[in-house]
Amino acid sequence: MRALTWQAPGRVSVETVPDPRIEQPTDAIVRITSTAICGSDLHLYEALGPYMAPGDVVGHEPMGIVVETGSEVTHVSEGDRVVVPFNISCGTCAMCSQGLQSQCETTQVREHGSGAALLGFSALYGSLPGGQAEFLRVPHADHGLIPVGSDLADERYLFLSDILPTAWQGVRYADIPRGGSVAVLGLGPVGQFAARIAAREGARVFGVDPVPERRALAERWGIEAFPQGEEAHQQILDATEGRGPDAVIDAVGMEAHGSPVAAVAQKVVGRLPDKLGRPLMERAGIDRLSALHEAIALVRRGGTISLSGVYGGTASPMPLLTMFDKQIQLRMGQCNVRSWTEDLLPLVEDTSDPLGTGDLVTHHLPLEEGPAAYEMFRSKNDNCIKVVLEPGRA
User: Fold this and answer.
1) Please, are residues 15 and 352 in contact by the beta-carbon 8 Å criterion?
2) Which of 31-35, 56-60, 250-254 has the lowest mean pLDDT?
3) CA–CA dist 104, 61 (Å, integer)
4) Which end of the chain has less neighbouring CB within 10 Å, N or C?
């Protein structure tokens, strides 16, 4: 089959690789019809090079048609249309039973002290082949796969794999009081959805992003959008009587603009050999923390910061004096996708499309154009906000 593979920092290519096969009786094989590029894929593209190997198949936002199942799979059948969550969870362990599928004890990658295995996301999370490919093996398919209807376009369902439940969890973790306010830092795909969800629930939403096209898209959904910088910070303070918003959602993470020293560190570490790069990743503060520091400065005293953006450094400096003095509550973590499926399915199937799943994708491209799509998404060229690759498209 054809698949998009990591080759070196800043370089991916579409290659012919072996077809996946059933390895465990709980597996299923899915023919991929749509697979999106996520901001987290950019971490693999550059910063997490020491945990990648040439030929690794990437991608963790896929959906498609079941073509084969293992002998113990009863929840889905051949021919079913399904969405594939990015984290692999068993559904029955102590963590899954608490709705913490991202911490699944059955698939935890204990070698690296990591949580549940993730599709297409480096040795840190199990080195499982990802979904930017023609076919995908899905372990623990009975619990993981989300059966969906056949009438609506792929993009109405596709984001149930990651960014929509990630945004939903980010809003839940933000704990915005009724009629309260929230600032969303970063208006990429997760930030767009988080802002829309919060606004739909009655919050006053401020969005901050340096890219004009992203701000314009958010404004169409009633978000008060600002460019990045001190002036925006002051305007949001002025709009909240000088206190700051009740909550801040950091939808940026380790790839934040600013933090020039950390930006150089990420680039250098990402290109080091594994034996040198991995210890630095595991012991050094390499995150670009400007978004997180902005969240800490902006949120009101006693407010909540919700981290949806991914961070990767283990020794990143934090202003604990300020955090303690402001009595900030901080929540974070990989999304527990299956915990939010039942909340989100009715919304994505609503004919009015209240979260705008059809208003986010800017580019539909064949899988073979994946390398160019990565560069476009990274550079934000051609007004790119979200790219969907379609393996069956010529």
Assistant:
1) no
2) 250-254
3) 19
4) C
